[in-house]
Design brief:
Chain A is an alpha+beta fold and 323 residues long. In chain A, 35% of the residues lie in helices and 25% in strands.
């Protein structure tokens, strides 16, 4: 199917869902009414590097590519706006799978209030999806950055960790004794992670100090906050909220569950810091946005991340894993 | 070289060149002060599809990827703003070539007043460069669209055509009798096309009707204007301004020079329509911005493109070529 026809097929799927979008396709560029500050992030995923088509459906791939970008907007507390997509497909991929991919992307866009306002379709040796997302905020003070952590802050995380990595281990054949619902939830967490847009916006309003999405694993992402903020971040592994089934999958794969939860990426939960006197405000704000908060550490003067095991001893991770 | 180190190397090369850019790297997203309308376009090029590394240096590739996107902003008459780049490289590509690619991109960004404000570096089976550019304008009326052509308008084009395609034919071994300077100019036009940003902005101020950049070849691009404007566009091939050497290269390759100029893409000149009473204003405005204008056709009621040969007879092209 010629690229031009595929673009037409996509245009029939995609909807404009904001009055901000003045021109979404058919010209040299999209035109969007702008104001305040634009918050922009790009992400790309490639078959054989970030996913395999024998474990991910075309819809999973489309979802994952957009979700990864939107998760960056969530981590800034920006209002999601527009997405621009480059889809690179091998000739063997075919029209129906390309449409399935874009439909899943549009479905996430709809839930997130996002308009896919432009894009390009090209031939490529491996399936490649590159997504640029633009979010909006009134001004730069209405966002949360990695650099806002201060000594004395508490470290919190939303939701549960390790689910995406456990889902990947299941796909790779880990033989864990799980009930069907737990298994499905872990696979879903790996294949269709949800960006925490409402929670990120709510936490920003609750004036958290620093925030980042958990994409490289909480240990590495705590390191990004520490580096940008010029502080030391302590994370107590024994406090980490593990997703249901993570422990069983980790043991089946011969892994330590806490280390897996600390190093496994792509959970797309939010890791943040907050002054102790904001503890209850943060908890109730997150709850109202549909998320639980677990306090897992603290910020002090210094540099880098200190991981502390349940026995109180320091833990070294060999690296981070990016499913 | 780990992707993280390569990103650091790129951050040392890239410069912020607008006060609009509040945060360019190191966080989850870039933050840019916004206003008026944002004009956004995405383009991607892939090794083996859009270029070959035995004819294009890494710098050519970086230049070409950014130039293609900026040309879309030129065609809208938008002020160039920020670029976001996803660089996908095979392991064999290596650090020094990746840096050469980004340096060429930064060099074009500097000439264009653009800040490369964010990006991503990933592993990919073939060299892939995906670029999102954002331009700015006061409002949607301060831009020129493909849809503004009206019956009675003249059709004009900037600069000279066929150069990129002739350069490609030379790279593929066409044996034309050219002097060194002509040959170099054709190769340069193919490898390092310049987006006509100043000219596009000037033509927009001179109130041209419709505008598009010549990326698919003037015949196909006139078709895009005809379709979006709901008009018929006539292009007289005998009037097309051929780049020096195009005729010799076309003949050496057994091709008709006018058809080559009409169907060969990636010249990144601007094709536009204007009311006859604006003819002199358009010419003097373009001249002030450093471009010549050639009038090559006219707009009438109807649909589609009519190509007319030097003998006054209709010409059919077999398709368009995208080098």
């Amino acid at each position: 199917m010629p690229e031009r026809d595929l673009i037409r097929a996509f245009e029939r799927i995609l909807r404009v869902r904001s009055e901000r979008v003045l021109l979404a396709s058919g010209d040299d560029a999209a035109v969007v009414r702008a104001g305040g500050v634009a918050v922009t992030s790009v992400d790309a995923i490639v078959e054989g590097v970030h996913f395999e088509l024998d474990t991910h459906s075309p819809g999973d791939v489309g979802h994952k590519a957009l979700a990864a970008s939107l998760s960056d907007l969530a981590a800034m507390g920006a209002e999601p706006g527009e997405a621009y997509v480059v889809l690179g497909t091998p000739a063997s991929f075919g029209e129906s799978r390309a449409i399935e991919l874009v439909e899943a992307m549009e479905s996430l866009a709809e839930r997130s209030g996002v308009t896919i306002a432009g894009g390009d379709v090209i031939a490529a040796p491996a399936l490649t999806v590159s997504v640029t997302v633009v979010g909006w905020a009134g001004g730069e003070r209405d966002l949360t950055y990695r650099q806002g952590a201060e000594p004395g802050h508490l470290v919190g995380v939303t939701g549960a960790l390790g689910g995406s990595m456990a889902g990947l281990l299941l796909l790779r054949g880990a033989d864990a004794d799980l009930d069907e619902a737990e298994r499905d939830a872990l696979l879903l967490r790996h294949r269709r992670p949800e960006p925490q847009l409402a929670v990120g916006a709510a936490l920003t309003e609750a004036v958290v100090g620093a925030m980042i999405d958990v994409s490289d694993g909480i240990a590495a992402d705590a390191g990004h906050i520490a580096e940008r903020s010029g502080v030391s971040v302590e994370v107590r592994l024994g406090e980490l909220p593990l997703a249901a089934g993570v422990e069983a999958v980790a043991r089946a794969a011969g892994r330590d569950p806490l280390e897996l939860a600390a190093s496994g990426g792509d959970d797309y939960e939010l890791l943040f810091t907050a002054a102790p006197d904001r503890r209850e405000t943060v908890e109730s704000t997150a709850r109202a946005a549909g998320a639980t908060v677990t306090w897992v550490g603290s910020v002090s003067a210094g540099a880098g991340v200190r991981l502390v095991g349940p026995d109180g001893r320091p833990v070294e991770l060999s690296g981070y894993e990016h499913p």
